[in-house]
Amino acid sequence: MPGYELFGAEERKEVNDVLETGIMMRYGFDGPRKGIWKAKELEQAICDKLDVKYTQLTSSGTTALSTAMAALGIGAGDEIIMPTFTFVASFESVFSVGATPVLVDVDDTLTLDPKAVEAAITPQTKAVMPVHMCGSMADLDALKAICDKHQLILLEDACQSFGGSYKGKALGTIGHAGTFSFDFVKTITCAEGGAIVTNDQDVYVKSDAYADHGHDHLGVDRGADQHPFMGYNYRISELHAAVGLAQIRKLDNILSILRNNKKIMKDALATVSEVTFRRLPDEAGDSATHLSFFLPDENTARAAAAAMKAAGLAAFFWFDNNWHYIRQWDHFKQNASLHAFPPGLKQAMEQYKTKQFPASDAIIGRCISTPVNLGWNQDEVKEKAEKLVKAVKSVL
Ligand SMILES: *Cc1c(COP(=O)(O)O)cnc(C)c1O
Protein backbone atom coordinates (compact mmCIF):
# COMPACT_ATOMS: atom_id res chain seq x y z
CA MET A 1 0.00 0.00 0.00
CA PRO A 2 2.48 2.70 0.94
CA GLY A 3 4.43 4.86 -1.45
CA TYR A 4 6.97 5.31 1.33
CA GLU A 5 8.40 1.97 0.28
CA LEU A 6 9.66 3.68 -2.87
CA PHE A 7 11.10 6.78 -1.18
CA GLY A 8 14.43 7.74 -2.73
CA ALA A 9 16.54 10.15 -4.71
CA GLU A 10 13.55 11.62 -6.59
CA GLU A 11 11.85 12.76 -3.39
CA ARG A 12 15.12 14.13 -2.02
CA LYS A 13 15.69 16.14 -5.19
CA GLU A 14 12.24 17.77 -5.02
CA VAL A 15 12.64 18.59 -1.32
CA ASN A 16 16.09 20.03 -1.98
CA ASP A 17 14.68 22.41 -4.58
CA VAL A 18 12.60 23.91 -1.78
CA LEU A 19 15.36 23.89 0.81
CA GLU A 20 17.63 25.77 -1.56
CA THR A 21 15.28 28.71 -1.83
CA GLY A 22 14.17 28.36 1.81
CA ILE A 23 10.60 29.28 0.84
CA MET A 24 8.51 26.60 2.48
CA MET A 25 5.14 28.32 2.19
CA ARG A 26 3.01 27.67 -0.86
CA TYR A 27 1.78 31.26 -1.24
CA GLY A 28 3.62 34.54 -1.75
CA PHE A 29 7.36 35.31 -1.63
CA ASP A 30 7.28 35.51 -5.43
CA GLY A 31 10.83 36.86 -5.84
CA PRO A 32 12.84 34.71 -3.45
CA ARG A 33 11.12 31.49 -4.42
CA LYS A 34 12.79 31.64 -7.84
CA GLY A 35 9.93 30.05 -9.74
CA ILE A 36 9.60 27.04 -7.39
CA TRP A 37 5.91 26.31 -6.77
CA LYS A 38 5.71 22.67 -5.67
CA ALA A 39 2.12 22.76 -4.38
CA LYS A 40 0.86 24.34 -7.60
CA GLU A 41 2.84 21.85 -9.64
CA LEU A 42 1.41 18.92 -7.68
CA GLU A 43 -2.14 20.26 -8.09
CA GLN A 44 -1.62 20.39 -11.84
CA ALA A 45 -0.10 16.90 -11.87
CA ILE A 46 -3.15 15.53 -10.00
CA CYS A 47 -5.52 17.25 -12.46
CA ASP A 48 -3.63 15.72 -15.38
CA LYS A 49 -3.37 12.27 -13.86
CA LEU A 50 -7.03 12.02 -12.79
CA ASP A 51 -8.44 13.99 -15.71
CA VAL A 52 -10.22 16.41 -13.40
CA LYS A 53 -10.52 20.20 -13.74
CA TYR A 54 -9.56 21.34 -10.24
CA THR A 55 -7.38 20.13 -7.39
CA GLN A 56 -6.91 21.85 -4.03
CA LEU A 57 -4.18 20.49 -1.79
CA THR A 58 -4.58 20.57 1.99
CA SER A 59 -2.59 19.56 5.05
CA SER A 60 -4.26 16.13 5.36
CA GLY A 61 -7.08 13.92 4.14
CA THR A 62 -9.06 14.94 7.21
CA THR A 63 -8.80 18.64 6.38
CA ALA A 64 -9.56 17.85 2.73
CA LEU A 65 -12.84 16.29 3.87
CA SER A 66 -13.72 19.24 6.14
CA THR A 67 -12.86 21.68 3.37
CA ALA A 68 -14.85 19.80 0.74
CA MET A 69 -17.88 19.67 3.02
CA ALA A 70 -17.70 23.38 3.76
CA ALA A 71 -17.25 24.20 0.07
CA LEU A 72 -20.24 22.02 -0.82
CA GLY A 73 -22.36 23.96 1.64
CA ILE A 74 -22.72 21.11 4.13
CA GLY A 75 -23.20 22.33 7.70
CA ALA A 76 -25.32 22.47 10.83
CA GLY A 77 -28.61 20.59 10.53
CA ASP A 78 -27.48 18.55 7.53
CA GLU A 79 -27.22 14.78 7.56
CA ILE A 80 -24.50 12.94 5.69
CA ILE A 81 -25.09 9.29 4.93
CA MET A 82 -21.89 7.29 5.27
CA PRO A 83 -20.84 3.67 5.87
CA THR A 84 -20.33 1.84 9.20
CA PHE A 85 -16.96 0.65 7.89
CA THR A 86 -14.71 3.67 7.31
CA PHE A 87 -11.92 5.47 9.08
CA VAL A 88 -12.69 7.68 12.08
CA ALA A 89 -11.43 10.72 10.14
CA SER A 90 -14.40 10.52 7.76
CA PHE A 91 -16.77 10.54 10.72
CA GLU A 92 -14.88 13.28 12.58
CA SER A 93 -14.79 15.59 9.61
CA VAL A 94 -18.60 15.60 9.43
CA PHE A 95 -18.60 16.94 13.02
CA SER A 96 -16.01 19.54 12.09
CA VAL A 97 -18.57 21.35 9.93
CA GLY A 98 -21.38 20.79 12.45
CA ALA A 99 -23.26 18.25 10.33
CA THR A 100 -24.58 14.88 11.50
CA PRO A 101 -23.15 11.59 10.28
CA VAL A 102 -25.79 8.95 9.57
CA LEU A 103 -24.17 5.54 9.49
CA VAL A 104 -25.70 2.89 7.26
CA ASP A 105 -24.83 -0.70 6.43
CA VAL A 106 -22.14 -1.86 4.08
CA ASP A 107 -22.51 -4.74 1.64
CA ASP A 108 -19.92 -7.08 0.14
CA THR A 109 -18.29 -4.14 -1.68
CA LEU A 110 -17.14 -3.15 1.87
CA THR A 111 -18.81 0.21 1.45
CA LEU A 112 -22.30 1.68 1.17
CA ASP A 113 -25.14 -0.70 0.43
CA PRO A 114 -27.32 1.35 -1.98
CA LYS A 115 -30.53 -0.07 -0.49
CA ALA A 116 -29.46 1.00 3.00
CA VAL A 117 -28.65 4.48 1.68
CA GLU A 118 -32.07 4.89 0.13
CA ALA A 119 -33.77 3.73 3.34
CA ALA A 120 -31.86 6.30 5.42
CA ILE A 121 -32.81 9.40 3.40
CA THR A 122 -34.72 12.04 5.38
CA PRO A 123 -35.63 15.67 4.61
CA GLN A 124 -32.34 16.63 6.35
CA THR A 125 -30.13 14.48 4.12
CA LYS A 126 -27.73 16.65 2.20
CA ALA A 127 -25.04 14.28 0.98
CA VAL A 128 -24.06 10.67 0.49
CA MET A 129 -20.43 9.85 1.22
CA PRO A 130 -19.16 6.46 0.07
CA VAL A 131 -15.72 5.61 1.44
CA HIS A 132 -13.66 3.71 -1.12
CA MET A 133 -12.01 1.46 1.42
CA CYS A 134 -8.79 -0.49 1.01
CA GLY A 135 -8.01 0.56 -2.54
CA SER A 136 -11.27 -0.34 -4.18
CA MET A 137 -14.59 1.27 -4.96
CA ALA A 138 -18.23 1.62 -4.09
CA ASP A 139 -21.03 0.74 -6.50
CA LEU A 140 -20.97 4.27 -7.90
CA ASP A 141 -23.62 3.92 -10.61
CA ALA A 142 -26.19 2.86 -8.03
CA LEU A 143 -25.18 5.58 -5.56
CA LYS A 144 -25.11 8.27 -8.22
CA ALA A 145 -28.60 7.29 -9.37
CA ILE A 146 -29.89 7.64 -5.81
CA CYS A 147 -28.20 11.05 -5.42
CA ASP A 148 -29.59 12.27 -8.73
CA LYS A 149 -33.08 11.04 -7.89
CA HIS A 150 -33.13 12.76 -4.49
CA GLN A 151 -30.96 15.76 -5.45
CA LEU A 152 -28.23 14.90 -3.00
CA ILE A 153 -24.53 15.67 -3.09
CA LEU A 154 -22.22 12.74 -3.82
CA LEU A 155 -18.93 13.23 -1.98
CA GLU A 156 -16.37 10.45 -2.50
CA ASP A 157 -13.98 9.78 0.35
CA ALA A 158 -11.29 8.29 -1.86
CA CYS A 159 -8.54 8.86 0.72
CA GLN A 160 -7.46 5.22 0.55
CA SER A 161 -7.84 4.76 -3.18
CA PHE A 162 -5.68 7.22 -5.11
CA GLY A 163 -5.13 5.82 -8.60
CA GLY A 164 -8.23 3.62 -8.55
CA SER A 165 -10.97 4.09 -11.14
CA TYR A 166 -14.54 3.15 -11.93
CA LYS A 167 -15.56 2.45 -15.52
CA GLY A 168 -12.63 4.47 -16.82
CA LYS A 169 -13.02 7.49 -14.54
CA ALA A 170 -10.70 8.18 -11.62
CA LEU A 171 -12.17 7.56 -8.18
CA GLY A 172 -12.86 10.91 -6.56
CA THR A 173 -13.90 12.53 -9.85
CA ILE A 174 -17.31 10.90 -10.23
CA GLY A 175 -19.20 12.69 -7.47
CA HIS A 176 -19.50 16.46 -6.92
CA ALA A 177 -16.14 16.30 -5.18
CA GLY A 178 -13.67 13.69 -3.98
CA THR A 179 -10.94 13.69 -1.38
CA PHE A 180 -7.55 12.00 -1.04
CA SER A 181 -5.08 11.50 1.76
CA PHE A 182 -1.33 11.44 1.27
CA ASP A 183 -0.50 10.51 4.84
CA PHE A 184 2.39 8.18 5.46
CA VAL A 185 0.55 4.89 4.83
CA LYS A 186 -1.45 5.85 1.77
CA THR A 187 -0.79 4.80 -1.84
CA ILE A 188 1.37 7.84 -2.49
CA THR A 189 2.55 9.98 0.39
CA CYS A 190 3.54 13.57 1.16
CA ALA A 191 4.33 12.53 4.78
CA GLU A 192 1.12 14.42 5.58
CA GLY A 193 -1.18 15.91 2.98
CA GLY A 194 -4.53 15.73 1.27
CA ALA A 195 -6.46 16.92 -1.76
CA ILE A 196 -9.93 17.82 -2.91
CA VAL A 197 -10.73 17.20 -6.56
CA THR A 198 -13.77 18.52 -8.39
CA ASN A 199 -15.02 19.58 -11.80
CA ASP A 200 -17.12 22.30 -10.17
CA GLN A 201 -15.44 25.70 -10.23
CA ASP A 202 -17.50 27.02 -7.34
CA VAL A 203 -16.47 24.11 -5.09
CA TYR A 204 -12.85 24.66 -6.06
CA VAL A 205 -12.83 28.42 -5.45
CA LYS A 206 -14.42 27.93 -2.03
CA SER A 207 -12.02 25.12 -1.13
CA ASP A 208 -9.05 27.25 -2.13
CA ALA A 209 -10.13 30.04 0.22
CA TYR A 210 -11.45 27.89 3.08
CA ALA A 211 -8.14 26.05 3.43
CA ASP A 212 -6.29 29.38 3.82
CA HIS A 213 -8.25 31.57 6.27
CA GLY A 214 -10.64 32.63 3.51
CA HIS A 215 -7.98 34.27 1.32
CA ASP A 216 -9.33 34.68 -2.21
CA HIS A 217 -5.78 34.61 -3.61
CA LEU A 218 -6.70 37.33 -6.09
CA GLY A 219 -4.58 40.15 -4.68
CA VAL A 220 -1.35 41.34 -6.29
CA ASP A 221 0.23 40.02 -3.13
CA ARG A 222 -0.98 38.21 -0.02
CA GLY A 223 -1.68 41.44 1.83
CA ALA A 224 -4.04 42.58 -0.92
CA ASP A 225 -6.19 39.42 -0.87
CA GLN A 226 -9.84 39.77 0.08
CA HIS A 227 -11.55 37.42 2.54
CA PRO A 228 -15.06 36.69 1.31
CA PHE A 229 -15.69 34.27 4.21
CA MET A 230 -14.04 32.63 7.19
CA GLY A 231 -11.68 29.75 6.81
CA TYR A 232 -8.90 27.89 8.61
CA ASN A 233 -5.26 27.08 8.10
CA TYR A 234 -5.44 23.75 6.33
CA ARG A 235 -2.54 24.57 4.00
CA ILE A 236 0.02 22.10 2.75
CA SER A 237 3.68 23.16 2.91
CA GLU A 238 6.02 23.26 -0.04
CA LEU A 239 8.18 20.57 1.57
CA HIS A 240 5.26 18.17 1.77
CA ALA A 241 4.08 18.99 -1.74
CA ALA A 242 7.61 18.40 -3.04
CA VAL A 243 7.55 14.82 -1.71
CA GLY A 244 4.14 14.29 -3.31
CA LEU A 245 5.38 15.51 -6.65
CA ALA A 246 8.10 12.87 -6.77
CA GLN A 247 5.59 10.27 -5.60
CA ILE A 248 2.88 10.96 -8.18
CA ARG A 249 5.43 10.40 -10.93
CA LYS A 250 5.82 6.88 -9.55
CA LEU A 251 2.08 6.18 -9.43
CA ASP A 252 1.83 4.08 -12.60
CA ASN A 253 4.73 1.97 -11.44
CA ILE A 254 3.24 1.64 -7.95
CA LEU A 255 -0.11 0.51 -9.34
CA SER A 256 1.40 -2.01 -11.70
CA ILE A 257 3.48 -3.60 -8.92
CA LEU A 258 0.48 -3.70 -6.58
CA ARG A 259 -1.79 -5.26 -9.20
CA ASN A 260 0.77 -7.88 -10.12
CA ASN A 261 1.44 -8.82 -6.48
CA LYS A 262 -2.23 -8.86 -5.58
CA LYS A 263 -3.10 -11.16 -8.47
CA ILE A 264 -0.57 -13.74 -7.32
CA MET A 265 -1.99 -13.69 -3.79
CA LYS A 266 -5.60 -13.74 -4.90
CA ASP A 267 -5.10 -16.58 -7.39
CA ALA A 268 -3.46 -18.64 -4.66
CA LEU A 269 -6.23 -17.97 -2.12
CA ALA A 270 -8.93 -18.70 -4.71
CA THR A 271 -7.94 -22.36 -4.50
CA VAL A 272 -9.47 -22.47 -0.98
CA SER A 273 -13.14 -23.22 -1.60
CA GLU A 274 -14.41 -21.76 1.71
CA VAL A 275 -12.97 -18.32 0.88
CA THR A 276 -14.93 -15.71 -1.05
CA PHE A 277 -13.70 -12.27 -2.10
CA ARG A 278 -14.82 -8.71 -1.72
CA ARG A 279 -17.05 -7.68 -4.64
CA LEU A 280 -15.32 -5.16 -6.90
CA PRO A 281 -17.84 -3.12 -8.93
CA ASP A 282 -15.10 -2.57 -11.54
CA GLU A 283 -12.24 -5.00 -11.09
CA ALA A 284 -10.04 -3.20 -13.63
CA GLY A 285 -10.15 -0.05 -11.49
CA ASP A 286 -8.94 -1.70 -8.28
CA SER A 287 -5.82 0.09 -7.05
CA ALA A 288 -4.89 -3.24 -5.42
CA THR A 289 -3.53 -1.91 -2.13
CA HIS A 290 -5.22 -4.73 -0.20
CA LEU A 291 -6.60 -8.20 -0.71
CA SER A 292 -9.91 -8.44 1.16
CA PHE A 293 -11.74 -11.73 1.59
CA PHE A 294 -14.44 -13.46 3.60
CA LEU A 295 -14.39 -16.57 5.76
CA PRO A 296 -17.57 -18.54 6.47
CA ASP A 297 -18.15 -17.05 9.95
CA GLU A 298 -16.81 -14.67 12.59
CA ASN A 299 -14.88 -17.19 14.67
CA THR A 300 -13.16 -18.67 11.66
CA ALA A 301 -12.24 -15.20 10.42
CA ARG A 302 -10.81 -14.18 13.79
CA ALA A 303 -8.82 -17.42 13.96
CA ALA A 304 -7.59 -17.00 10.37
CA ALA A 305 -6.36 -13.49 11.11
CA ALA A 306 -4.49 -14.80 14.17
CA ALA A 307 -2.97 -17.63 12.12
CA MET A 308 -1.86 -15.16 9.45
CA LYS A 309 -0.19 -12.96 12.06
CA ALA A 310 1.53 -15.98 13.60
CA ALA A 311 2.89 -16.76 10.11
CA GLY A 312 4.32 -13.24 9.84
CA LEU A 313 1.64 -11.85 7.55
CA ALA A 314 -0.23 -8.58 8.15
CA ALA A 315 -3.93 -9.21 8.75
CA PHE A 316 -6.66 -6.69 9.53
CA PHE A 317 -9.71 -8.19 11.19
CA TRP A 318 -11.71 -4.97 11.08
CA PHE A 319 -14.49 -6.27 13.29
CA ASP A 320 -12.30 -5.99 16.38
CA ASN A 321 -10.66 -2.70 15.37
CA ASN A 322 -11.59 0.58 17.06
CA TRP A 323 -10.56 2.92 14.24
CA HIS A 324 -12.46 1.56 11.32
CA TYR A 325 -15.70 -0.05 12.41
CA ILE A 326 -18.55 1.43 14.47
CA ARG A 327 -18.78 -1.58 16.82
CA GLN A 328 -15.86 -0.41 18.99
CA TRP A 329 -16.17 3.36 18.65
CA ASP A 330 -16.88 3.94 22.30
CA HIS A 331 -15.54 7.50 22.33
CA PHE A 332 -18.09 8.54 19.74
CA LYS A 333 -20.87 6.61 21.43
CA GLN A 334 -20.15 8.44 24.68
CA ASN A 335 -19.96 11.81 22.88
CA ALA A 336 -16.45 12.13 24.31
CA SER A 337 -15.54 15.46 22.79
CA LEU A 338 -13.33 18.24 24.15
CA HIS A 339 -15.91 20.78 23.10
CA ALA A 340 -19.67 20.44 23.31
CA PHE A 341 -21.21 19.13 20.13
CA PRO A 342 -24.06 21.27 18.87
CA PRO A 343 -27.09 20.18 20.94
CA GLY A 344 -28.93 18.66 17.99
CA LEU A 345 -25.92 16.63 17.08
CA LYS A 346 -25.50 15.25 20.57
CA GLN A 347 -29.07 14.07 20.49
CA ALA A 348 -28.61 12.50 17.08
CA MET A 349 -25.54 10.64 18.34
CA GLU A 350 -27.39 9.10 21.29
CA GLN A 351 -28.74 6.37 19.03
CA TYR A 352 -25.27 4.95 18.42
CA LYS A 353 -24.97 3.86 22.06
CA THR A 354 -27.45 1.10 21.37
CA LYS A 355 -27.98 0.95 17.62
CA GLN A 356 -27.08 -2.42 16.12
CA PHE A 357 -25.91 -3.08 12.57
CA PRO A 358 -26.49 -6.81 12.02
CA ALA A 359 -26.13 -6.60 8.23
CA SER A 360 -22.75 -4.85 8.54
CA ASP A 361 -21.67 -7.28 11.29
CA ALA A 362 -22.45 -10.17 8.96
CA ILE A 363 -20.03 -8.70 6.39
CA ILE A 364 -17.27 -7.14 8.51
CA GLY A 365 -17.39 -9.98 11.04
CA ARG A 366 -16.19 -12.39 8.33
CA CYS A 367 -13.77 -10.09 6.52
CA ILE A 368 -9.98 -9.97 6.58
CA SER A 369 -7.80 -7.58 4.59
CA THR A 370 -4.13 -8.07 4.02
CA PRO A 371 -2.05 -5.24 2.61
CA VAL A 372 -0.17 -5.72 -0.66
CA ASN A 373 3.41 -4.46 -0.53
CA LEU A 374 5.56 -2.82 -3.17
CA GLY A 375 8.92 -4.01 -1.92
CA TRP A 376 8.42 -7.75 -2.32
CA ASN A 377 10.32 -9.47 -5.11
CA GLN A 378 8.60 -12.23 -7.11
CA ASP A 379 9.88 -15.00 -4.85
CA GLU A 380 8.70 -13.15 -1.78
CA VAL A 381 5.21 -12.64 -3.20
CA LYS A 382 4.93 -16.34 -3.96
CA GLU A 383 6.17 -17.18 -0.48
CA LYS A 384 3.60 -14.78 1.08
CA ALA A 385 0.85 -16.30 -1.05
CA GLU A 386 1.77 -19.81 0.07
CA LYS A 387 1.87 -18.75 3.73
CA LEU A 388 -1.50 -17.05 3.34
CA VAL A 389 -3.13 -20.17 1.94
CA LYS A 390 -1.55 -22.34 4.62
CA ALA A 391 -2.63 -20.03 7.45
CA VAL A 392 -6.21 -19.80 6.22
CA LYS A 393 -6.49 -23.55 5.61
CA SER A 394 -5.15 -24.26 9.10
CA VAL A 395 -8.34 -22.90 10.71
CA LEU A 396 -10.88 -24.45 8.35
C1 LIG B 1 -6.48 8.21 5.85
C2 LIG B 1 -7.92 8.47 5.70
C3 LIG B 1 -8.50 9.71 5.96
C4 LIG B 1 -7.75 10.85 6.57
O1 LIG B 1 -6.56 11.16 6.00
P1 LIG B 1 -5.37 11.84 6.86
O2 LIG B 1 -4.48 12.35 5.79
O3 LIG B 1 -4.74 10.76 7.66
O4 LIG B 1 -5.97 12.91 7.67
C5 LIG B 1 -9.85 9.88 5.71
N1 LIG B 1 -10.61 8.89 5.25
C6 LIG B 1 -10.10 7.66 5.02
C7 LIG B 1 -10.99 6.61 4.48
C8 LIG B 1 -8.76 7.41 5.26
O5 LIG B 1 -8.27 6.19 5.08
What's the helix and strand layout?
Blueprint: H1 9-21, H2 38-50, E1 54-58, H3 61-71, E2 79-83, H4 88-96, E3 100-104, H5 114-120, E4 125-128, H6 140-150, E5 153-157, E6 165-166, E7 169-170, E8 177-181, E9 194-198, H7 201-210, H8 238-248, H9 251-269, E10 276-277, E11 290-294, H10 298-310, H11 330-333, H12 343-350, H13 358-364, E12 367-371, H14 378-393
Parallel strand pairs: 2-3, 2-4, 4-5, 5-8
Antiparallel strand pairs: 1-9, 6-7, 8-9, 10-11, 11-12
Residues 60-62, 86-87, 89-90, 131, 157, 159-160, 181, 183, 194 line the site of pyridoxal-5'-phosphate.
Written account of the structure:
This protein has 396 residues and is an alpha/beta fold. It folds into two domains: 249 residues, Type I PLP-dependent aspartate aminotransferase-like (Major domain) (Aspartate Aminotransferase, domain 2, 3-Layer(aba) Sandwich); 142 residues, Alpha-Beta Complex (Aspartate Aminotransferase, domain 1). Helices cover 38% and strands 13% of the residues. It is built from 14 helices and twelve strands. Helix 1 runs antiparallel to helix 8 and helix 2 packs parallel to helix 8. The protein binds pyridoxal-5'-phosphate (PLP). The site of pyridoxal-5'-phosphate (PLP) has 14 residues, from helix 3 and helix 4. It comes from Chitinophaga defluvii. This is DegT/DnrJ/EryC1/StrS family aminotransferase. Keywords: Aminotransferase, Pyridoxal phosphate, Transferase. One of its GO terms (molecular function) is transaminase activity.
